[in-house]
Amino acid sequence: MKKRKSRLPVIVDILTHNSIGSQEELSKQLAIRGYIVTQATLSRDLKMLRTTKVATDMGGYRYIIADSSHLSNEPYAKSQNTVQSGLHPAALSVGVSGNLVVIKTRNGYASGLAYDIDMLESPHILGTIPGADTVFAVVNETSERSDLFSLFSSFLPQQIMAVARHQFFPEEAVRGDVEIKDDY
Amino acid sequence: MKKRKSRLPVIVDILTHNSIGSQEELSKQLAIRGYIVTQATLSRDLKMLRTTKVATDMGGYRYIIADSSHLSNEPYAKSQNTVQSGLHPAALSVGVSGNLVVIKTRNGYASGLAYDIDMLESPHILGTIPGADTVFAVVNETSERSDLFSLFSSFLPQQIMAVARHQFFPEEAVRGDVEIKDDY
DNA sequence: ATAAAAATTTCATCATCATGCAGATTGCAT
DNA sequence: ATGCAATCTGCATGATGATGAAATTTTTAT
After folding, report:
1. What CA–CA distance (Å, rounded) separates B50 from B62?
2. Which residue of A has its CA nearest to B62?
């Protein structure tokens, strides 16, 4: 019964695609996937993964992966559920600077969004690094900004892309500083 | 006795400059500064500040400010404590590479430093991501390196800035690549 | 100023999480 | 295979955190 190694990636997957608010809840999700463990073990697993519980916008709590470094070496490959239908509701704003795309999200959703970007397996994205409410996406040097605009338009709300459009098409820019607006 | 407004900034200050591992511990620190409150109140305060407990490198836990941008009514923001007085003692070194500024801190202080950078609300900074002992700050494309030097000089020890000066003023540089090192 | 509404806090308690310890499993070197 | 060390796990329990209800203060609107 030493399943930790295979279990941890599953936990990461569950946490990034579901809103898990307690270890008991996580335990149930794991059970569905064939991993039967107690809360005690999960406490250790979560400590190891450096996950943490944060307050969500709507009253509750949610576990997130607090640590960064999971460049797209895809240890747990393309799993089943993902966004894929499109339009990521957790995104608040997007900006471009050099070879980085910076996406602000509602608190706790950065990991999930970064994961979803990875799953696109786009040649334009080398890798992502999620924080608590910010995602850094490293862009391929040879990619055109128009490519990036298309890419992110495919899953970020149109409204957010519209605000950021001038960053993807500088030549059209009207002038005026980038407005990164955080509303809470 | 409705001190929450004045208490929250103090909590932020305590959390960013100390290693607090429990609400009881925070309660004691607050008491020293004249704020007598129960654990129940702190639970609500911390939820409001969206702080969270994370596993530290060795064994324990520590509360950090998970979010970078808070309630828009900014009850504290540019208030008393925190940065302002200048000179962030947790910083160890700073470097620039492309549109990224990389700051090394003493272990566990990256979150606090990133928070302080966010609080500057500088137009030169698009966003930050703290690791355990490293902060990545993404710089606005239109910002000059001299702007960045001024910005960081305002709250990083002069000695550190002096060492990094050649990175902010390449024309004066002697040569030498930026070392972006992530150690975990 | 006064009443009503909202916000803040504590108390008491329930819920959740962390961990020492013992038993079990695995890996590795005889 | 055997023994030993390291890893993993559950159990039981202590530690820590969250929250309903009631009391008190602050704010807001007459």
Report:
1. 14
2. A52
